[in-house]
Amino acid sequence: FLPRLVAAMEGVEETYIMIKPDGVQRGLVGEIISRFEKKGFLLKGLKLFQCPKELAEEHYKDLKDKSFYPKLIGYITSGPVVCMAWEGVGVVASARKLIGATNPLQAEPGTIRGDLAVQTGRNVVHGSDSPENGHREIALWFKESELCQWVPAQAPWLME
Ligand code: IDP
Ligand code: MG
């Protein structure tokens, strides 16, 4: 199985997924992790973390001119978040589909935001928007030593 598995790794991407403080406070951690796990992506990093203000500002630096930016930084630093690094072929766009539209009222039923949230300012989860940002954000939120390279036992049953 292993040579075929390595061949299947062509086009592999990584994405940074974060359960925001509302998701943690509302007890949705297991539910949200479970959706990515069941889909079949590979979990490479996972931690509960109190985000410092400087890190939140760096993560959301592209939004610093938006009117909601101060509230966004307050929201993300208001309590612990769950940081995750997920790997897989096409994982960036697929994770964004699992998450759903930014405004939960416009997110499709079946998506995380569509099922579990009502407001843009409390939309429970973050997902990187491009493979480049996936790399950038994982490097921003994780130390190299916090990431595991491993092959799950179920790998040959997920990828041919
Ligand atoms: P995304 O999380 O779906 O990629 P972005 O446009 O990158 O959406 O915005 C980042 C985050 O900023 C959103 O997930 C949401 O928490 C917050 N945000 C975006 N637009 C608004 C808004 O109009 N009001 C309040 N918060 C917002
Ligand atoms: Mg975004």
Automatic annotation (TrEMBL):
EC assignment: 2.7.4.6
Taxonomy, superkingdom: Eukaryota
Positions that bind ATP: K20, F68, R96, T102, R113, N123
An example Gene Ontology molecular-function term: ATP binding
Sequence intervals crossing the membrane: none
Ranges in coiled-coil conformation: none
Catalytic activity as recorded in UniProt: a ribonucleoside 5'-diphosphate + ATP = a ribonucleoside 5'-triphosphate + ADP; a 2'-deoxyribonucleoside 5'-diphosphate + ATP = a 2'-deoxyribonucleoside 5'-triphosphate + ADP
One of the protein's GO biological processes: GTP biosynthetic process
Keywords for the protein's UniProt record, in alphabetical order: ATP-binding, Kinase, Nucleotide-binding, Transferase
Enzymatic class: transferase
The protein's name in its UniProt record: Nucleoside diphosphate kinase
Protein's organism: Canna indica (Indian-shot)
Included stretch of the parent chain: 79 to 238 of 238
